[in-house]
Design brief:
GO terms for molecular function: acetyl-CoA carboxylase activity; ATP binding; transferase activity; zinc ion binding. This is CoA carboxyltransferase N-terminal domain-containing protein. InterPro entries: AcCoA_carboxyl_beta, Acetyl_CoA_COase_Trfase_b_su, ClpP/crotonase-like_dom_sf, COA_CT_N. Acetyl-CoA carboxylase is a heterohexamer composed of biotin carboxyl carrier protein, biotin carboxylase and 2 subunits each of ACCase subunit alpha and ACCase plastid-coded subunit beta (accD). A 6-stranded mixed β-sheet has the order 1-2-3-4-5-6. Helix 1 runs antiparallel to helix 8 and helix 3 packs parallel to helix 4. The chain is of the alpha/beta class. The two termini are about 20 Å apart.
């Protein structure tokens, strides 16, 4: 909510009247959105489960510098060869795939925890085909240009290191310079401990870029939390969205139950760190099943453009 300076008004009554008008306008916009969404659902427009979120996900060099892709051009491919830019990391949100569950045993059994960090990076690059735990790009959502970042929990538990922080920061800066709406999907175990304080620095760096994007340029950022979203990601950009959306049953926390048990010797009921309980406490704006996300996001972007 925008903070109002009372010195800009001639009297307290004028300020109070202005605040009431803003509140009434917000309520009317919310009601209009819900009516439109309800109408779409009844007409079946929100149930197209096969549509992709992004069209033409070609990544400019500015967004993803380690991929030497010519800016705004489709890479030349031999017949049968697939480009990493073209992979379905775009998250086909309408397919209704279930979010990954956070478990202590989820670490890949082939990966040795005592292996050097460089070797672990090489292993996950080979295992996932990704360069790191986030993919960024630009595309269109129902014809509207958007900037998109998608985290991948398969790569070192989606942890945020220097590469992840730099790519997300550059994505935000690109969206700022080109006045694009921003969507970031989070799935992360938090800051990458292997990189020490450098990984923690990414929290401040990304948050600073978002401040310029949201406060100075007044652009629109939608944060989508998938399961699990924890640690430094939760404590930074994941919770800074103008609109924060999560899925049913999503695990969201700063520290998981096992960590809390070890440090505080207290047990937290599992359901207290799930989306439904946190929604009741005001952590999120919406809980949306994955197959409805595309239409909900599209309506939010349309409302913001009014």
């Amino acid at each position: 909510m925008v903070s109002l300076d009372s010195s800009e008004f001639d009297s307290e009554a004028e300020l109070e009247c202005y605040e009431d008008n803003i509140k009434e306008w917000n309520e009317e916009m919310c009601q209009a959105f819900m009516r439109k969404l309800s109408k779409d659902l009844k007409e079946g427009q929100a149930l197209e489960r096969t549509a992709n979120l992004i069209e033409e996900p070609w990544l400019p060099e500015y967004i993803q510098p380690e991929e030497k892709v010519e800016e705004w051009t489709k890479p030349d491919l031999d017949e049968g060869e697939e480009s990493q830019d073209e992979e379905r990391w775009i998250w086909e949100l309408d397919k209704g795939e279930e979010s990954q569950e956070i478990e202590d045993s989820e670490a890949n059994e082939e990966d040795d925890d005592d292996a050097p960090y460089v070797e672990r990076l090489a292993f996950y690059k080979k295992e996932t085909g990704l360069l790191d735990a986030v993919q960024t790009g630009v595309g269109q959502l129902n014809g509207r240009p958007v900037a998109l970042g998608v985290m991948d929990f398969r790569f070192l538990a989606g942890s945020m290191g220097c590469v992840v922080g730099e790519k997300i920061t550059r994505l935000i800066e690109y969206a700022t310079n080109n006045l694009l709406p921003l969507i970031i999907l989070s799935a992360s175990g938090g800051a990458r401990v292997h990189e020490g304080s450098l990984s923690l620095m990414q929290m401040a760096k990304i948050s600073a870029a978002l401040y310029d994007y949201q406060s100075n340029k007044r652009l629109f950022y939608i944060s989508i939390l998938t399961s699990p979203t924890t640690g430094g990601v939760t404590a930074s950009f994941a919770m800074l969205g103008d609109i924060i959306i999560t899925e049913p049953g999503t695990f969201v926390a700063f520290a998981g139950p096992r960590v809390v048990q070890q440090i505080l010797n207290e047990t937290i009921p599992e359901e207290e760190q799930e989306a439904e309980a946190l929604f009741e406490k005001g952590f999120f704006d919406l809980i949306v099943p994955r197959h409805l996300l595309k239409n909900v996001i599209s309506e939010l972007l349309n409302l913001h453009a009014l």
